[in-house]
């Protein structure tokens, strides 16, 4: 008769139990590592989005100032170019705005430049987290920083009639506005213009 019994069964299943437990523990640690990496990437993407948007919003304010100056100067149709978003130039204020928003998200701007998307001006920004992914079972994550990039575009929201004469009163409509806006270069006051956000939309490029 072959010796056997419950004790032998328990002895044969113990290695299998240890092996399965080890596999489950490794899977849990691997999942945690990927979650850490995903969290860091999300943080970097949030910082990049914020940086690009901040730069574009800063330049949107510049567009409004340029538009006002062009209207008051009375230099032909130049002010209509500003209304179309033509006139954005790289400036230190845009970079500073991008860096400030990235810093608020515990990241730094590691890449920055003006760009153009479908004919519209904008800014491209790359952000890198100040923090690392953290310790995990994957070697090197304790020193790895997450990085992401984003592009924000400045798009005009207002359009004058094609037959508009820039040296006379020009009526134009803006997205989201029920009433048309009229600008007369010969009788212009700053209050005639809406806010920059009403004239130019700022959004992330698709």
Name some characteristics of this structure.
alpha+beta, elongated, 44% helix, 206 residues, four-stranded antiparallel beta sheet, three-stranded antiparallel beta sheet
Structural class: alpha+beta
Mean pLDDT: 78
The proportion of residues forming helix, as a percent range, comes to: 40-55%
Count of DSSP-assigned helices? 4
Q: What percent of residues are in strands?
A: 25-35%
Task: Give the H and E element order.
Answer: HHHEEEEEEHE
What is the number of independent domains? 1
**Radius of gyration (Å):** 29 Å
Biggest β-sheet strands, sense, barrel: 4 strands, antiparallel
Residue runs with pLDDT of under 50 for 5 or more positions: none
Strand order of the largest sheet: 1-2-3-7
Task: Tell me the number of strands.
Answer: 7
Shape: elongated
Distance between the first and last residues' Cα: 76 Å
Question: How does this structure look, described?
Answer:
The protein is of the alpha+beta class. The chain has one domain (6-204). Helices cover 44% and strands 25% of the residues. It is built from four helices and seven strands, in the order αααββββββαβ. The chain has helices at 6-73, 78-83, 92-104, 196-199; strands at residues 107-117, 120-132, 145-156, 158-160, 170-174, 181-183, 200-204. The strands form two sheets. The protein has a four-stranded antiparallel sheet with strand order 1-2-3-7. A hairpin with a 6-residue loop joins strand 5 and strand 6. Helix 1 (6-73) runs antiparallel to helix 3 (92-104). The chain is elongated. The protein starts with 5 loop residues before the first helix and ends with a strand.
